[in-house]
Design brief:
- It is a single chain.
- With about 120 residues, this protein is an all-beta fold.
- Helix content is about 0%, strand content about 55%.
- The protein has strands spanning about 5, 10, 15-25, 30-40, 45-50, 55-60, 65-70, 75-80, 90-100, 105, 110-115.
- Strands 2, 4, 5, 6, 9, 10 and 11 form a seven-stranded mixed beta sheet that branches. It has a four-stranded antiparallel beta sheet with strand order 1-3-8-7, with no helix packed on it.
- A hairpin with a 6-residue loop joins strand 4 and strand 5.
- The radius of gyration is 13 Å and the shape is globular.
């Protein structure tokens, strides 16, 4: 299983970016798909997840600004990021999990840089 992440870049504060995560297999196979991020000298943290039933979780600091979605027909999950802040600067990682058996898959990171 491979996860291909894309969409990072440099944006000014207040701007928007959309990240994409495309799976090599059927995305509906995964119970949960999501995004984590890691800023320099920080631990990796969960940003947003969406499960196969559409249940969504967000990190508190991104609620109202970020929107996660998944398109099963395209085997792709998206993270729409609006009103970006400098503190959103990080490497963003796509993640997918299966439950039975439990498996945790990670894509390569994509760098998001928000300038003030």
């Amino acid at each position: 299983v491979q996860l291909q992440a894309s969409g990072g870049g440099l944006v000014q504060a207040g701007g928007s970016l959309r990240l994409s995560c495309t799976t090599s297999g059927d995305i509906s196979h995964f119970n949960t798909v999501g995004w984590h991020r890691q800023a320099p000298a920080n631990q990796r943290e969960l940003v947003a997840t969406i499960d196969r039933y559409g249940f969504i979780k967000y990190k508190d600091s991104v609620k109202g600004r970020f929107t996660i979605s998944r398109d099963n027909a395209k085997n792709t999950a998206y993270l729409q990021m609006n009103s970006l802040k400098p503190e959103d600067t990080a490497v963003y990682y796509c993640n997918a999990q299966t439950l039975i058996p439990y498996r945790d898959y990670w894509g390569q990171g994509t760098l998001v840089t928000v300038s003030s």
